[in-house]
Write a structure and sequence with these properties.
With about 170 residues, this protein is mainly α. The chain is elongated, with a radius of gyration of 19 Å. One of its GO terms (biological process) is photosynthesis. Keywords: Chloroplast, Membrane, Photosynthesis, Plastid, Repeat, Thylakoid, TPR repeat. It comes from Dicranopteris pedata. It is found in: Plastid, Chloroplast thylakoid membrane.
């Protein structure tokens, strides 16, 4: 049984009902409806921490989805799963792919910055100052890109840029 047919909580059931109504009203192809169903099931599984199931649904959705904007969100969510699983190199790849299709995903840029910052911290712990600086510089670049379209978001990122004097002109 598809996950969308076995949602237990009120919010998931309500979302599923509304999504099903929209899919009937909005002119879409069978392929688009199927891709959306897999995407929705992936989101549901991901929200419950069922990352393997979520990944399977996202990969099925990607095989069907041809719209670059819609694919960007699928790729972004796959990146989130890899981040949660500590697979940072894979996560960075998926976030980059998402941004190639939709450059207006500041959350992907912010997540990339967090990963780069983490890697910079790891390099510090290993005593590798040169590598840590490179990772922190990359984190700063991603943070600035994330902040640019939405300056009121990512306050922690703005503060980090100020404290580390890595700001290059986003206005902070």
């Amino acid at each position: 049984m598809p996950r969308s047919q076995r949602n237990d909580n009120f919010i998931d059931r309500t979302f599923t009902i509304l999504a099903d109504i929209l899919l009937q009203i909005i002119p879409t192809t069978e392929r688009e409806r199927e891709a959306f169903t897999y995407y929705r099931d992936g989101m549901s599984a991901q929200s419950e921490g069922e990352y393997a199931e979520a990944s399977q649904n996202y990969y099925k959705a990607m095989r069907l989805e041809i719209d670059p904007y819609d694919r960007s969100y699928i790729l972004y969510n796959v990146g989130l799963i890899h981040t949660s699983n500590g697979e940072h190199a894979k996560a960075l790849e998926y976030y980059s792919q998402a941004l190639e299709r939709n450059p207006f995903l500041p959350q992907a840029l912010n997540n990339m910055a967090v990963i780069c910052h983490y890697r910079g911290e790891q390099a510090v712990e290993q005593g590798d100052a040169e590598t840590s600086e490179a990772w922190f510089d990359q984190a700063a670049e991603y943070r600035e890109q994330a902040i640019a379209p939405s300056p009121s978001n990512y306050i922690e990122a703005q503060n980090w840029l100020k404290i580390t004097r890595r700001s290059r002109g986003w206005g902070g």
